[in-house]
Give the backbone structure.
Amino acid sequence: MGASELVDPARIGWINAPGPDGDIVISSRIRLARNLKDVPFPHLLSEHGSREIISRVYEAFQANPVLSRDAELFIMDELSSEQKNMMVEMHLISLDLSTSKKGAVIINQDRTISIMINEEDHLRIQTMFPGLNPEKAYDLADKVDDVLEEKLDFAFDEKIGYLTACPTNVGTGIRASVMMHLPVLTMMNQIGQIFSTITQLGLVVRGLYGEGTQANGNLYQISNQITLGKSEEDIIRNLIGVARQIIASERKARQNLSGDAKLRVEDKILRSYGLLTNARLMTSQEALACISDVRLGVDMGIIKNLKPQDINQLFIMTGPAYIQEISGRPLSPTERDLSRADFIRQKMLK
């Protein structure tokens, strides 16, 4: 699997397979932060030291032929800016890792496993599954963690837990999150009150690409804030419980649409469908907004010629880096908007 093959959405397991509560929850993700014992954190590593960490982690992962089958190592400094940004758009790496000169990532064939090396911590073990599936994602992440820990000595304190570069990750080192599509709650201005409530339950809301990003396309990442003093199982159980309440609220909001409100939502959905199938120019932000509307239309049965998986693909296939990469040449902003509109139109009308 070379870097150019990363553009193939058919390889992304969490997009193409249906998952539990998939009408609201796009994906579930687990990240485990780990550091090697008696080794400086990544921001203090020399170039030689960072390369040594990459080599040690890759060798440890390869020791398990089942999990590491067809996985590949990508060195950040050897990738183009477009390739790194495309990995961010596809949720394979973080924004921080994309700018690191010391970092690398190991990615398996179906993109369910992504091991970021020398980001904020020596390792960020990431697993992703479709729908409301954080337990399954954690099961896989735990297996990867066990495989690596057989060969690597992690920094661990008997009282505190896993030691991390940022104090907020100390303890279990786990970030459990779900990506939710909440268009009607957003349209009805109910989203703020819901998110205000869940922050009191130890959860935090982030944008499409994680911390510091906006919730474009009515997509929100909801994850735990606390990693210390709670078990992984408790953290995941709390996330699932809150997610189910939000799922119920979004479904109820959709079911309660009536009269003028229902007409306006249906009109918005069909206008967005018209734009996606006819526009000549389209920015990435406009594309996400329209794709969100059409995804709602598919879920509500208003648009019948598309599948949810088709729309999920478009959520990550319309970013600037993706459009740039598949074009195979440098594009001006206008050319990129033209290529994006052409690409979306072909996908929608195939």
